Amino acid sequence: MSALAQVLRARGHRVSGSDRNLDRGLNQTLFRKLSQLDIRCLPQDGSGLKEGVDIAVVSTAVEETNPDIKMARERGVPVVNRAVLLSVLFNDLQGVAVAGTNGKTTVTGMVGWILDRAGLDPTIIVGGTIKNYSSSSHLGNVRIGRSDIMVIEADESDGSLIYYRPELGVITNITKDHKPMEELLMLFSTFAEGSSKLVIGADCPVAKSIRSIPKETITFGVSERALFRATDVICKGWSSSFKVNGVDFELNLPGRHNVMNALAAISSVHLLSVPLEVSANALKDFKGMSRRLDLVCEIDGIKVIDDFAHNPQKIKAAIDSVRLVSRRILAVYQPHGYSPTRFLREEFIQVFSEELSEDDVLYMPEIFYAGGTVNRDISSLDIVESLTARGIKAHFIPDRREIIGHVCAEARLGDAVLVMGARDDTLTDFCQEIAASLAGRKAEKGLIVEGGVGRG
To answer: Pick from 429, 143, 32, 108: which is nearest to 289 by CA?
Structure first.
């Protein structure tokens, strides 16, 4: 929503908005930056729906009981879905829409960054922060361009990707998340049919089953059937390298999944006539997306890493990547929402059982509740009990704050503390609290050593 608000404000519209987190006193940096852009941030109590408001724009997560929606209905102000309004701005342009269950945020950022570096001056709208564009005054989830190229992230979780009619559609992959596979396949098939050109992952068996694809469709992957294929792939530490058609690529991003993300971006901009060499130069300087394997700190040989992973495939990618830079993983996973956790319960149990070693430890607080009407018939405890029965070192600690002490008592040289979860803006603060506790532990150890030397 904040990205769309910035685009509308840049086009001269008066924009204001509300957010639960503003009322809770959370994420003040976000609201300060929006205010600096002349976007008013108001309480979510209906007071913002005054005279002169032409439309109320909402995400699908906002319920009809929301005070702002109720006031809009009472005053006859049209209520418009965010994706519908974005499609109005997008569909008449040379639009690039990036979809897929995993990787779409990073691929959107990569595509936009490459096009920017290629001098094509795109507008970029993405559901995360592109570090290259983030600053003290800008959120980094938008770049306002002057050309008719617009790059957006298209979301399948609420089905809104079907509103878009891109000049170029991108499908990274399709795995179970948010909806049953049959429903997801229908959504992505509709998206493919509405795309003039298409880029699609060749190594995803579900994506390959989409039949109604445009004539100009290219594939990417590491298998031989991919038109854009990565060879000589090397993933080490916080970087990776590979070749595409003889051109060398280097990423300052960890993990094999980021090689796949880069392939999707490289293939996409190729259809917009960007040479491989230009893509290679741009990606070498791409800083990544916030909360995608962010190294918060390293203290006493212990890394603290912040990641957005919230479905089984993302969790696997995060653990696999962190495994490259650590001897042992202390994972903290906060599930987001009762319905998603219930829907993917067995898959969560499977991925943690398969990915965590006998030395790793998993800590889970209670499921994050973002508000609204929910059925709380599942708990993180249900997942932890299933994991411990399989021999995994898993602990249910309902109050997230209490996990900090457990992690700091357990952590030792060579460990990585991997914090995973979505929709909760305070998880990054939680990582900082772990870092502060580790720093305090180190300082305390130093005092003990100095005291011991003095007594000698």
So the answer is: 108
- Residue 128 in contact with residue 141, Cβ under 8 Å? yes
CA distance 165 to 52: 31
Give the number of other CB atoms < 10 A from CB of residue 57. Answer: 20
Residue 415 tokens read as 């460990």
d(CA 316, CA 191): 27
Contact criterion met (CB below 8 Å) for 56 and 85: no
Strands (E), 266-327: 294-299, 302-307
Distance CA 230, CA 220 (A): 8
Q: Which residue has the tokens 């993180």?
A: 380
What does the DSSP 8-state code read for residue 398?
A: S
Q: Where are the chain's structural domains?
A: 2-82, 91-284, 294-446
- Which residue's structure tokens are 């600096």? 36
Q: Hey, what are 440's tokens?
A: 């305090």
- How do the pLDDT tens digits run along the chain, 456 residues long? 999 999 999 999 999 999 988 888 888 899 999 999 999 999 999 999 877 899 999 988 888 899 999 999 999 999 999 999 999 999 999 999 999 999 999 999 999 999 999 999 999 999 999 999 999 999 999 999 999 999 999 999 888 999 999 999 999 999 999 899 999 999 999 999 999 999 999 999 998 888 789 999 999 999 999 999 999 999 999 999 999 999 999 999 999 999 999 999 999 999 999 999 999 999 999 999 999 999 999 999 999 999 999 999 999 999 999 999 999 999 999 999 999 999 999 999 999 999 999 999 999 999 998 777 778 999 999 999 999 999 999 999 999 999 999 999 999 999 999 999 998 989 999 999 999 999 998 888 765 444 443 333
The CATH H-level superfamily of 294-446 is: Mur ligase, C-terminal domain (3.90.190.20)
Name the class of domain 2-82. alpha beta
Tell me the CATH number for domain 91-284.
3.40.1190.10
Q: CA dihedral defined by 440, 442, 448, 452, rounded to 10 degrees?
A: -160
Residues 329-339 as b or e (16 or more Cβ within 10 Å = b): bbbbbbbbbbe
Closest by CA position to 35, among listed 60, 49, 58, 17 = 17
